[in-house]
Design goal:
The chain is about 45% helix and about 20% strand. The protein is an alpha/beta fold. It folds into two domains: about 200 residues, Spore Coat Polysaccharide Biosynthesis Protein SpsA, Chain A, CATH 3.90.550.10; about 80 residues. The strands form two sheets. The protein has an eight-stranded mixed β-sheet with strand order 3-2-1-4-8-6-9-5. Strands 7-10 form a two-stranded antiparallel sheet. Helix 10 runs antiparallel to helix 12.
């Protein structure tokens, strides 16, 4: 396939050198299937280790920059600041892009001239038998998750990029999706695929990060309440409870007792944490 589109693949990273090398290998392989492609891989490293910097000497078109250490949203924005492409493609450092990843992205950009962004599919890299594995699977769209998205660089700059008030990896990608949708079309393309490894969580670890998740979600609903048709705090609390109740019932149905317990905790304890941050207005 021919391409004259300039692409910048931005990867935020932190202490995942082995996963990152595999990711870059697969991206480089994917680019070989597109003729006359002009691309760069921009890695924003929040650790900025010498090991990560050495990747630039192994792979062509790779640029390693120092990350800002202010969370994933800020790390992605930092990568975009050093990007030269017309389109910015985002993936995570532990993802494995499909061999047709870049060819399908360039095909979509050329065939759908009015689009401002693209949502790709996320498949699990493998399956586990653990009841507490976490993997952002997206097979049918509606989840603009940063493991596999593309955004027109000009539009990205117009809407201000990722909101760096999201300090934790939660909802910052859906936030930019809402703003992006106001600028044009953002189709889901199921043939644009990355594979994401499941991460094995623990009850303790999941409860420990509950506060950060609730804080991020409260900020998200305070900022995007109008977009989600949430008129007041009562609507936002109902939205929070109903969302967790939906997942609780799902996990009970499939007899996943550990996930059911966690969602129960998010309803019983997390609601109070969520309410605290809901009333604590952060600058929006």
């Amino acid at each position: 396939m021919h391409s004259d589109i300039q692409l910048s693949i931005v990867i935020p990273t932190y202490q995942r050198i082995n996963d990152l090398i595999v990711c870059v290998e697969k991206i480089t392989e994917s680019c070989k299937y597109v003729k006359n492609i002009c691309y760069e891989i921009v890695i924003s490293d929040d650790e900025y280790s010498k090991t990560t910097q050495s990747i630039a000497s192994i792979f062509p078109n790779v640029k390693i920059i120092r990350g800002p250490n202010k969370g994933p949203a800020a790390n992605r924005n930092n990568g975009v600041k050093h990007a030269k492409g017309e389109w910015i493609i985002f993936t995570d450092d532990d993802c494995v892009p499909d061999k047709n990843w870049i060819s399908e992205i360039t095909r979509t950009i050329k065939n759908k001239r009015k689009i401002v962004g693209i949502e790709g599919a996320i498949h699990p890299l493998y399956h586990t038998k653990c009841n507490l594995d976490e993997c952002p699977v997206n097979l049918s769209g509606g989840n603009f998750w940063s493991a596999n998205i593309a955004i027109n660089k000009k539009v990205f700059d117009e809407i201000g990029g990722f909101d760096e008030n999201y300090k934790f990896a939660a909802y910052e990608d859906m936030d930019i999706y809402y703003r992006l949708r106001e600028k044009g079309e953002v189709p889901f393309i199921k043939k644009i695929i990355v594979y994401h490894p499941p991460r094995i969580a623990t009850i303790y670890g999941s409860i420990k990060k509950m506060t950060r998740i609730c804080e991020s979600f409260a900020y998200h609903l305070n900022k995007n309440g109008d977009y989600l048709n949430l008129e007041n705090n009562t609507d936002k609390i109902k939205y929070y409870i109903n969302l967790n109740l939906h997942f609780l019932l799902h996990y009970l149905k499939v007899l996943n007792l550990k996930q059911s317990f966690l969602k129960f905790m998010y309803i019983i304890i997390g609601t109070h944490i969520f309410l605290f941050f809901l009333n604590k207005k952060i600058n929006i």
